[in-house]
Amino acid sequence: LSTGNYNAATSRAYTDLAVMTNKIEIGIDARKFFDAVFQQQTPSQFQTLVMAPTRLHKRIVTLIEQETAAALEGKSAKIFAKVNALVDKDIIAKLYTASQAGVRIEHLVRGACSLVPQVQGLSENIRVFSIVDKYLEHSRIYYFEHSNVMYLSSADWMPRNFFSRLEIA
C-alpha cells in the first residue's frame, strides 16, 4: 500500500510512503478495491481499509469523538495528522471540541489550513506546523492515540477528498 502513485514524471518532486504487509485482511481489501474500480463499480465491504466517499469522513469523525470521550474520562488522548490541507468544517468543529476536552492535537499541514491553534477557550491544545521544502509532501498520516489507530492515505481533510473522490486509508 502506498500514499502515492510513484509516477515516473512526478517521482523527483513528490515524496510518498509505502507499507509492505502480510496481513491477509489488507490484501483482500486491496483486491476488492481494485477489482471494483476495474469493473467501474464503487468498492465497498472492507475489513480494514476505509474508503471515501462512502466511509472515510465518518470514520475520522468517530475517531475524533472517541479521543474526546477518552479525554473527558481522564485518559490520555492525542490526535496527530499530516495532511496537505485541512479545511473540512465538520472535522474542524470536532477538533475544537476535542481540544476543549483536553485532547492533545498536533497537525502538520503543508498548505491550506482553516484550523486556528492556540486560541484561549477554543483550541489551546492544538498545535499546527507547516514545513515547505524541496519536495512536495504527498503522504497523509492520521493517528489516534487512545483508539490506537493509524491510517496512511493520500486523502486530505477537505470536502473534495471526503465526498468527491475515490480515496482509501
Order of strands, main sheet, comes to: 5-4-3-7-8
Largest sheet, described in full? Answer: 5 strands, mixed
Query: What series of H and E elements makes up the topology?
Result: EHEHEHEEEEEHE
Structural class based on helices, strands and sheet pairing = alpha/beta
| Number of distinct beta strands | 9
Query: How does the overall form come out from the CA principal axes?
Result: globular
What is the helix tally? 4
| pLDDT < 50 stretches | none
First-to-last CA distance: 9 Å
DSSP strand (E) fraction? 15-25%
Measured as a percent range, the helix fraction is 25-40%
- On the 0-100 scale, what is the average pLDDT? 90
Gyration radius, rounded? 16 Å
Quick summary:
By secondary structure, this protein is an alpha/beta fold. The protein has four helices and nine strands, in the order βαβαβαβββββαβ. It has a five-stranded mixed β-sheet with strand order 5-4-3-7-8. It has a two-stranded parallel sheet with strand order 1-6. A two-stranded antiparallel sheet has the order 2-9.
